[in-house]
Amino acid sequence: MSTPPKALVLRTGGTNCEEETARALALGGAEVEILHTDRLIEQPARIEAYRILVFAGGFSYGDDLAAGRVWGLELRTSLGEALRAHVERGGLMLGVCNGFQALVEAGLFEPERSARERDVALYANASDHYECRWVELEAHPSRCLWLRPGERLPCPVAHAEGRLVVRDSKALAGLYERGQVALTYVGEGYPANPNGSVDGIAGICDPTGQVLGLMPHPERNLDPWNHPDWTRRETRREGEGLEFYRSLVRVAASGEPVG
Does 97 participate in catalysis according to the annotation? Predict the structure, then answer.
């Protein structure tokens, strides 16, 4: 039996989804560790032991300045070089909800990986309030290594600043041209698109396809009864979010994108 890939779930003050995320990765076949970001800043070389880095959801630093901004600043200034090296080695990276916000703030999705002149940002929901509801996602044809175009993924959202916006039409076109639009909300308008993201974009990847960020929470749909309509849905042995993490682990183990 091959050795399972190692996954590191990063947390910081205010994150609250690290345990669910670690369970998702473990069920998906990874060997998982949870670590505070401060410990990684002390020893950035620890990243080299892992094939997968996941930035958990929650409310880092209370979202006092903006969602993910302080955590993203830490990542950019203290771990930027180590994170870039992780991708260059072929490692995978995932940011969910607040973790996605932090990676956006750190500039991990920009073509030149610079946070100074970012083309993408996450702003306050168009509804102007916190959204906590189930949505359905569809994988868009993209460079993301572990998503299959057309697959559907129901999962919940829980955020107040999840509206993906772009600098201008040229920046939006660039996302499509580089294959960075990875996940979209299924359905038109609110509440199918719960935050008003441009083009209904729910998740994007970086130009390599190795870094993915999304606002919804796949780790909250691992068991068949997690979905509020589970008694009225076709019988399922697991939640659809488990295959999302299983696919991530498979790609980390094989080094090959999904077929």
Answer: yes
Q: pLDDT digit string (tens) for 186-216?
A: 999 999 999 999 999 999 999 999 999 999 9
Which helix (H) or strand (E) segment holds residue 242: the answer is helix 240-254
List the beta bridge partners of residue 153.
Answer: 137
Global pTM value: 0.95
- Specify whether 227 is catalytic: no
Q: Which CATH architecture has domain 6-254?
A: 3-Layer(aba) Sandwich (3.40)
Interval 23-57: pLDDT, tens: 999 999 999 999 999 999 999 999 999 999 999 99
Domain borders along the chain are 6-254
Provide the strand spans (E) within the chain: 6-11, 31-36, 52-55, 92-96, 120-123, 131-139, 152-159, 163-166, 181-185, 201-205, 211-214
Whether the CB-CB separation of 192 and 133 falls below 8 Å is answered with: no
Residue with tokens 């916006």: 165
Q: Verify whether residue 219 is a known catalytic residue.
A: yes
Dihedral angle, C-alpha 101, 105, 110, 115, nearest 10 °: 180
Catalytic residue from among 217, 227, 240, 243: 217
